[in-house]
Design brief:
single chain, Aspartate Aminotransferase, domain 2, binds pyridoxal-5'-phosphate, 4-stranded antiparallel β-sheet, Aspartate Aminotransferase, domain 1, 15 strands, about 15% strand
């Protein structure tokens, strides 16, 4: 009889979003017709911008035309989009060859697939609280996982010390769920550590477009030595509303080698074996994001989310509640007031003011006592949620 991958039996059930949905459902059954203010969602609420929609329509028409029709696309990405991505980096003074830029179907797919590059014996270090997929993808692969807890004392931005050991290192900056962003000097410590130890950093830059402080790095390749130790995984999901459309890009420098193997070459071989390229239509839509018009339009949407962040941050500032994130990230991570637990605070907000957030405990044990607000909701609901929060907690 065939033996399935028994590592699946080691996955912990993820009750986080299921529990949230169940609790909201139960509340609405008891309180029919009540409006719920959803600050828990990790999905965008604004539609794709006009420049993207126009490009998608044109690409659909191309597919109806004998001369302009495209069949299979190159596995590593359409040359037109790979070049646009390389130019996007060049504008940030990061020099990349076009074939160091790969087009993907989104960061989630890539974060899972990229693990093909590493042996099962490699350990994976996950800075927690963390995006849950990092842990689960490595459990499925049967890898040892090193959980590196972070906390308020280091601003949820830990750096390696003499006890740190890791082969694969996940760094998400700006972070989901904490919204914390590594400074150049903090990130440099991880780059130096990885080069010294022969580790590889998987740098998840899904939220780089939300950084507004000029001193903070958008890309790990802004750091000296990163090209010999890092892979950067990016997504148009939160940058340009592609969560349901699906497009991302990944940078694997040609200088990244381990044990005589070149990881860029390996990834080309992986893509040509396991994919037949990302749809032409989506790549045309993605290309439109990088045009001046596309950039202006996606900024307008990002600014709406940033304004939501300001509204929540102002309320928390007035209440004197500790938080991080919000300024350079679409998430705000706060300490639950009055020593409440994550789920206790969840229930309290749902029952008292019908505001839904995400309990921090769901992102790792060290998230207990913290809570995540997302800024991807509607401005109206966000304003009302912040007003209700202020009124409720001032009363306390
Ligand atoms: N990485 C992080 C940290 C995320 O929060 C998300 C989505 O929420 C993703 C990756 C997945 O992005 P994509 O939609 O491109 O798969």
């Amino acid at each position: 009889m065939i033996t399935p991958n028994m590592n699946y039996a080691n996955l912990k059930d993820s009750y986080l979003f299921f529990n949230i949905a169940q609790k909201v459902k139960a509340y609405l059954e008891k309180n029919p017709g009540k409006h719920i203010y959803r600050l828990g969602i990790g999905d965008v609420s604004l539609p794709l911008c006009d420049a993207v929609i126009k490009a998608l329509h044109e690409a659909v028409d191309d597919q109806a035309n004998k001369e302009r029709f495209h069949g299979y696309m190159p596995e590593c990405g359409a040359p037109f989009l790979r070049e646009i991505i390389a130019n996007f980096y060049a504008d940030k003074d990061i020099k990349l060859d076009v074939d160091e830029c790969f087009v993907s179907s989104g960061a989630s797919d890539e974060l899972g697939d990229i693990l093909d590059l590493f042996d099962r014996s490699c350990s994976a270090l996950v800075i927690e609280p963390a995006y849950p997929a990092y842990v689960d993808a490595n459990v499925i692969a049967g890898r040892e996982i090193i959980h590196l807890a972070s906390g308020k004392e280091n601003g949820f931005l830990p750096v390696p010390d003499e006890n740190t050991r890791a082969d694969i290192i996940y760094i998400c900056s700006p972070n989901n769920p904490t919204g914390a962003v590594f400074s150049r000097s903090q990130l440099q410590k991880w780059v130096d550590f990885a080069n010294k130890n022969g580790s590889v950093i998987l740098f998840d830059a899904a939220y780089e477009a939300y950084i507004e402080d000029e001193s903070l790095p958008h890309s790990i390749f802004e750091l000296e030595g990163a090209k010999t130790c890092a892979i950067e995984i990016c997504s148009l999901s939160k940058t340009a509303g592609f969560t349901g459309t699906r497009l991302g890009y990944t940078v694997i420098p040609k200088a990244l080698e381990r044990n005589g193997m070149n990881l860029n070459d390996m990834w080309v071989r992986n893509r040509t074996t396991k994919t037949n390229g990302v749809s032409y239509i989506l790549q045309k839509g993605g290309a439109a994001v990088f045009t001046p018009e596309g950039q202006r339009q996606i900024r307008e949407n990002i600014n709406i989310y940033k304004n939501n962040a300001k509204v929540i941050m102002e309320a928390l500032d007035k209440l004197g509640i500790w938080y991080c994130g919000g300024k350079n990230a679409p998430y705000i991570w706060l300490q639950c007031p009055n020593g409440m637990g994550s789920w206790e605070f969840f229930d309290y907000l749902l029952n008292e003011i019908q505001v839904v957030g995400t309990p921090g405990q769901g992102f790792g044990a060290c998230g207990e006592g913290y809570f995540r607000f997302s800024t991807f909701g509607s401005p109206e609901d966000t304003k009302e949620a912040a007003r209700r929060l202020s009124e409720l907690l001032e009363r306390k």
